[in-house]
Amino acid sequence: MEATRTDKRKKYLQRTLGIVALLIAVNIAASYFHGRWDLTAEKRYTLAPSTRALLKNLDAPVTIEVYLKGNYPAGFRQLADATRELLEEFQQYGGNNIRFSFVNPGTELPDSMRMRYQDTLMSKGILPFNLQVQEDSKDAYAERLIFPGALLTYKGQENGINLLKSQGGLDPMQALNSSEALLEYKFAHAIYQLQQPERPLVGYMLGHGEPEGSNVYDALKTLHEIYQVDTINLKTTPFITREFAAILFARPLESFTDQDKLKIDQYVMNGGKVIWFLDNLTAATDSLRGRSFMALPRDLKLEDLLFKYGVRVNLDLVMDLQSDMIPLVVGNIGDKPQIQPIPFPYFPLLASTNAHPIVKNLDLVMSRFANSIDLIKDENIKKTVLLTSSAHSKTVNAPVEISLESVQQQPNPREYRMRNIPTAVLLEGRFPSLFNHRLSIGEQQAIRGLSGVPFKGIADTVNRMIVVSDADVIFNAFSQKNGPMQMGVNEFNPQYVFANKEFFLNSMEYLTSKTPIMDTRNKELTLRLLDTEKIKKDRTKWQLIAFIVPIGAILLFAMVFQFIRQRRYAA
User: Fold this and answer.
1) How would you classify the pairing of strands 463-468 and 273-277?
2) Using alpha carbons only, how large is the chain's radius of gyration in Å?
3) Rounded to whole angstroms, how far apart are CA atoms 270 and 110?
4) Which of 322, 389, 403, 571 has the largest CB neighbor count within 10 A?
5) Distance CA 63, CA 331 (A)
6) Any residues with CB less than 8 A from the CB of 115 and at least 6 apart, and which?
């Protein structure tokens, strides 16, 4: 009997030691081998191949400070949790080269130092957000300036990013959901920028009346922060060198000669990228100061060149019921004029109808006097419409009389039956030359002598070009008090920021980038919200179920337990 007990004890001890040894072995193996399974339908927790490659190839630590620590509402806590989960995933591939921390910026600093610290964050591109938060010791709410962003440091260089997407035009939950979807792109893109030894060179084109003043201040400042920027006078330069990764035309006013177009054409044939911001009519916001004006065609003579590449910018104006506001005197109160913001159909708010990385998760883009764009049928050129009008729009052909008085009349929705009129188009393919079979051998030899590259009748490789039919997309307003404003801001409503800068930067990145990191913008997180109608309809039913079922389950368990107990001990 004693021997049997001893054998049992040995077996129990052996089993216990075996289980302990197994657990130790599993833990040791887990420290060397990692495995994760993403079971979400949209692959929420799976990094893109380009992001994984970027993180694995880091040769120095990237330090990340995330400014999302504090007593914030549920939406911001959700964004903070999503950021933490993403950075933990980054560490799986970047190892010790990814170091992050969550901080509450400037909370323990005196007021004067906190203000300077906040100014420093803003100078690095991290924008503040005015938030109502509940104080720890009070039931009341107070306004607090927070900075929902992050600062990345790599080899002594810094790059600030904003984690919160603008909520303009979006439901707050959708805005936060879009912010979460863009987290991977924003962090990966910031790391990629810090790694680049040399920034791409972008040419700002001059020679045809393009502006250089305060109305393009923000566009040029934005470019200088990311790219090397130089000006090119198209009239005086003999050719456009391929040292320029892309060239930018912003509202040219004067006609282009064949010689001008030949320089652009051969730059494109040799792989150069071009982004056009054109105004085909003489319509400008400043002209409204006279209460009315006539918008006439602007003879740029670019029709044949753009037609050859696959688009036609029309001599018309897009009018849209989804439009930006303009202040208008609608009456008088005593001797003071009563000013009220009125939707102005000539200021359409542009949106995207596809999921291209340039415009994925993009808010509305503010425009002024946009023209419509026709797509020319050509199977060799792929055309992607980036921005369009709304489903309630129309076009009016030039010449167009524009007056503020017409705005006071209620627009007739039946007249706005056109849908999704294209106003920005991406062109991709092997572009044919406008001058193919048009130049003599001597002229072709002259081109080779100037540029060192022979004339080409078709592009060697697949190239890219973007055409936008409104230069005001990248122009900024000017405040007499604060100077140049940010692009995408209506000077009469400066609190609201449209997505103009985001569209501009995305377009430039798509043209100049040599990596597929931008594809991470295509990530989409599905909001699985409760059906509010069903909640209202079935509220009482589910309340009863939630109340009765747990109590019933406990009572049933008690009855079964008592029955079994009585049967067992009946004897």
Assistant:
1) parallel
2) 31
3) 57
4) 389
5) 57
6) none
12-41 pLDDT, tens digit each: 777 778 788 888 887 777 666 555 666 565
Query: How many Å apart are CA 557 and CA 393, to the nearest integer?
Result: 66
Closest listed residue to residue 459, CA positions, set 570, 571, 330, 309: 309
**Rounded distance between C-alpha atoms, residue 492 and residue 244, angstroms:** 37
Please tell me the distance from the alpha carbon of residue 429 to that of residue 465, in angstroms, as a whole number.
9
CA–CA dist 385, 395 (Å, integer): 17
pTM above 0.70, yes or no: yes
Kindly report, residue by residue over 186-239, the tens digit of the pLDDT: 999 999 989 888 899 999 999 999 999 899 999 999 999 899 999 999 999 999
Two tokens at 399? 């010449």
Residues pairing with 478 in the sheet: 484
State how far the Cα of 181 lies from the Cα of 526, in Å rounded to an integer: 9
Residue 91 tokens read as 């560490």
Q: Which tokens sit at 168?
A: 């303009």
Q: Which helix (H) or strand (E) holds 447?
A: helix 441-451
Q: How far apart are CA 47 and CA 53, in angstroms?
A: 10
Instruction: Concatenate the DSSP letters of all residues of 211-253 into one string.
Output: --SGGGHHHHHHHHHHSEEEEEETTT-SS--TT-SEEEEE---
Instruction: Give dist(CA 195, CA 47) in Å, integer.
Output: 19
Distance between CA 275 and CA 278 in Å, rounded? 10
